[in-house]
Every structure is written in C-alpha cells, then in structure tokens.
Amino acid sequence: MCCCARQAQIYKKTITEIFGDDYRFDIYDMRHRWAVRSIEANVNQSLCAQSMGHSLEMHEQRYQRWMTATDLRAAMVKLTK
Predict the structure, then answer these.
(1) Where exactly are the structural domains of the chain?
(2) For the chain, what percent of residues have pLDDT higher than 90?
(3) 11: Cβ–Cβ under 8 A, 6 or more apart, which residues?
(4) Taking phi first (over 0 means left), then psi (-120 to 50 degrees means alpha), and beta for anything else, what does residue 20 get?
(5) 41 within 8 A of 74, measured Cβ to Cβ
C-alpha cells in the first residue's frame, strides 16, 4: 500500500471516529473541495491543475461548473486593474 493510501485510511478512520459509521466520506471529497475553493479564492488554475496532476483542460472541464457569477465578476475586476 502506498503512502497516500495509508494516509487516506488514517483520515477516513478519524472522520469515522468523529462522525460515526453512517457518515459517508471519501478522501476525494477533500480533493474536490480544495479544487473548488481554489476557484473561489481566484488561485491560478494552471497551478492548481498541475498540483492535482492533470492538465488545465481537464481541470477546467471538471471544476469550472462550480464557478459562480461572483467568481466571474471577481476575475473580471482582477483583469481590469
């Protein structure tokens, strides 16, 4: 078992101990939430895609649907400064 898989098991065990067996948790929930939060925080998406191990195109296809009008307005303000 690789280091990441062991770490995922530790996280899952801890979450189960805190919230109980009925709480559905997958380590990918944290990964996806990080990607969405990076959009919300206007982090460079090319860097986010690279850090997640996939192309910018794949990253955009997967996560841009979570962008809100507020996110788009913030990006426009940033571009026009």
Answers:
(1) 3-79
(2) 6
(3) 27, 30
(4) left
(5) no
